[in-house]
Amino acid sequence: MAALRAIRGMVNGAVSELSGGGASREQAAAVTRDYLSQPRLTYKTVSGVNGPLVILDQVKFPRYAEIVHLTLPDGTKRSGQVLEVSGSKAVVQVFEGTSGIDAKRTSCEFTGDILRTPVSEDMLGQPINPQCRIYPEEMIQTGISAIDGMNSIARGQKIPIFSAAGLPHNEIAAQICRQAGLVKKSKDVMDYSEDNFAIVFAAMGVNMETARFFKSDFEENGSMDNVCLFLNLANDPTIERIITPRLALTTAEFLAYQCEKHVLVILTDMSSYAEALREVSAAREEVPGRRGFPGYMYTDLATIYERAGRVEGRNGSITQIPILTMPNDDITHPIPDLTGYITEGQIYVDRQLHNRQIYPPINVLPSLSRLMKSAIGEGMTRKDHAEVSNQLYACYAIGKDVQAMKAVVGEEALTSDDLLYLEFLQKFERNFIAQGRYTIHQCCVTVSSPLRSMFQSLLRGQLDFPCAISGGEKERKNLRGFQSRKPQSLGATCWFSGILIKLFERRTLSPFSLPLILQSELFI
Q1: Where does the ATPase F1/V1/A1 complex alpha/beta subunit nucleotide-binding domain start and stop, copy by copy (predicted)?
Q2: Are residues 174 and 44 in the same domain?
Q3: Which residue in 502, 456, 498 sits closest to 480, CA to CA?
């Protein structure tokens, strides 16, 4: 009876305040109605915000997995879901993030309903694409042969550069900014037009020397006119380091989707960003994950990397090249490990190549561009681009194996085939990978030299044929005449390496079929 009197008194008190205004009337109606039939209640009892979570007190009958609508002070609407219920306390995870939420002025409406989605048979064959993303195509040329030739970057792709302390990743980033340009579709020329290409460069946690290097390099080479520069120094507040890449990407989205430019975003150093994220997480007393990094670092990095791409109805694109330094050259560290899961490949900067004075020290074997196939080929770069890249990769991989074998058994124990591969490896690194800091390499020219030298060695008899040599004097003259011819396209280079691979795999191949191949379209 005492409980009934208390409830009756609360109802009477609420009804007596109806004349006090609209807010009192709504509160009285919320108290008197049945919660299960009309469950929508609005609260302004936010007691705290922790990462993506909002904590509310004094909530009447909160339900697990209930959908909550949040209204920010500026009128922005967001949605969330109840993750935990403890008495009158509810923990809500906000889908759109908690940025801008004011604990005192944010109102939360509990709908009493769970998450629902409309379904239909029309959904079959229609993948969900809420942002209307377009598959990345066409190529951005950097002028670095190891990237353009074997790890081509597509517009709208996100591909990181894995480096380490003491390696020239800053010089590579500056060179990409100087030389990057668009490749016109259906033409093998570069488009340096300032009207449709821009670069957004963001440096996080760099020292004064590095900041001065980037700024002076952009100014001296005239690329500052196309570059939007964001610099966060090592002595700046940690929270600025977390904001810097988001400011840069917001600027890139404006240039890409409003001004319809093709934007190249370079972020360095993402390791400094991850360490700043760990510092903020420790200050919040959150449960640490691997090596002290927060458990949500994968999600946080994805909010940065996934902003690259192309949007339907817009001509612009955002291509990301984040640069990170691997602690102790450890590629299994959480930062490169999680980055590799999110992005579409990686470009690996190798310390051994750097110690041998090869610049840029890019190791093409662990490097990968998963979207290269959509950026090259007929109508975009060259018809034989993929074949040449694959053959170069195969020859270089065999050369590295021979180099490792040489360190064990010595050069005297190597066969003539092994020596030829070893010679190719040296010429490939010296003529194809290596280039000057201010040199734009046309990879279709530099790639032909090492492969052609291998094939000339074959014709001079320095390589054993796997089949019996037989033929007339006419065929022998044709073979000797081949040595004076020069390749005019990558098709010839592709054919060189294809012949060599077949020979070294001991397949049956008649050398006197070469004159017929020389007259084919591949050599024209």
Answers
A1: 143-369
A2: no
A3: 456
Angle at 483 between CA 480 and CA 489, to 5 degrees: 135
Q: Chain-wide mean pLDDT for the chain?
A: 77
Q: What does the pLDDT read at residue 185?
A: 56
What angle do the packed helices 448-459 and 385-409 form, to 10 degrees? 70
Instruction: For residues 70 and 97, state if they share a domain.
Output: yes
Q: Is 503 helix (H, G, I), strand (E, B) or coil?
A: helix
Confidence bin at 7 (pLDDT 50/70/90): very low
* pLDDT of 27: 58
Same-domain check for residues 49 and 16: no
Flag the least confident range among 26-35, 230-239, 338-347.
26-35
pTM flag (> 0.70)? no
pLDDT of 31 > 80? The answer is no
Same domain, 164 and 283: yes
135 in a domain, yes or no?
Answer: no
pLDDT of residue 195: 62
Both 171 and 311 in a single domain?
yes
Q: How confident is the model at residue 200 (pLDDT cuts 50, 70, 90)?
A: very high
More confident residue, 479 or 524: 479
Interior/surface letters 221-253, b for 16+ CB within 10 angstroms, e for the rest: eebbebbbbbbbeeeeebeebbebbeebbebbb
SS3 track for 263-328? EEEEEECHHHHHHHHHHHHHHCCCCECHHHCECCHHHHHHHHHCCCEEECCCCCEEEEEEEEECHH
Residue 468 has pLDDT above 80, yes or no: no
**Residue 309 belongs to some domain of the structure:** yes
pLDDT(275) > 90: yes
Same domain membership, residue 204 and residue 348: yes
pLDDT value of position 220: 85
Whole-number pLDDT of residue 431: 87
Residues 444 and 430 in one domain: yes
Using the 8-state DSSP alphabet, how is residue 97 labeled?
-
Q: How many domains does the chain have?
A: 4
Compute the radius of gyration of the chain from its Cα atoms. Answer: 31
| Assigned token pair, 243 | 């904001």
**Range list of H helices, 315-447:** 334-342, 351-355, 372-375, 385-409, 416-427, 443-446
CA dihedral 474, 476, 481, 486 (to 10 degrees): 120
- Among residues 360, 366, 495, 369, the alpha carbon closest in space to that of 433 is found at 360
β-partners of residue 309 are 318
- Residue 428: give its domain's CATH number: 1.10.1140
CA dist., res. 262 & res. 193, Å (int): 11
Average confidence (pLDDT) over 446-471: 45
Q: Let me know whether 293 and 391 are in one domain.
A: no
Report the alpha-carbon distance of residue 197 to residue 181 in Å, rounded: 7
Residue 65: CATH number of its domain: 2.40.30.20
Which structural domain, as residue segments, surrounds residue 46?
A: 39-115
Q: Which candidate, 208, 265, 264, places its Cα nearest to that of 236?
A: 208
Sheet strand arrangement including 89-94: 41-43, 107-110, 67-71, 77-86, 89-94, 53-56, 46-50
